[in-house]
Description:
alpha+beta, 7-stranded antiparallel sheet, binds flavin mononucleotide, two-stranded antiparallel sheet, Pnp Oxidase, Chain A
Amino acid sequence: MRNLPLSRVYRLIEPGPVVLLATARPGRANLMAMSWHMMVEFEPPRIACVVSDRNFSYKALRATGECVIAIPSASLARKVVAIGNCHGNVVDKFRRFALTPHAAAKVAPPLVEECLANLECRVVDKSLVKKYGIFILEVMKAWYDSRQTKAKNISSSRLWGICP
Ligand SMILES: Cc1cc2nc3c(=O)[nH]c(=O)nc-3n(C[C@H](O)[C@H](O)[C@H](O)COP(=O)(O)O)c2cc1C
């Protein structure tokens, strides 16, 4: 066994899949990578996720209460890491990473066309936001790409070789 720095422990525990969180301020959609999330209810599906207040996405999520969780396939892993290493206030990530926004049915933030699945969500509980950055989301509408049912999602451990 070799020493693992304590700063890397999260990589063993975080559940994955690594997802993209799409948010939108008026006229401006953004994406961030997100791996700290968990299911908390079957139906209606509810998901707890941690969004740090250091991220541009945090402001949009707090202000609008809406987002899309897009599930990328493993083939998008490098893009996802790059999306998680730049900020939407300086970069138009849809454009820079050549991803296609697609109008959602129930929320303002767009679906990501290249992803395996997209979940349209609304924030239903903010009580843990101040202390932990935890937002409780409810999935209002779910989509999957029938051409990609055999594709694999991105498990966090796959990123060991990619993340800086
Ligand atoms: C693989 C990966 C997973 C990440 N998971 C999270 C997460 O769960 N919560 C979070 O707040 N930031 C997470 N981040 C960091 C954000 O994606 C990153 O700070 C991003 O640049 C924020 O973009 P924004 O400022 O445009 O919102 C992750 C980054 C990577 C590369």
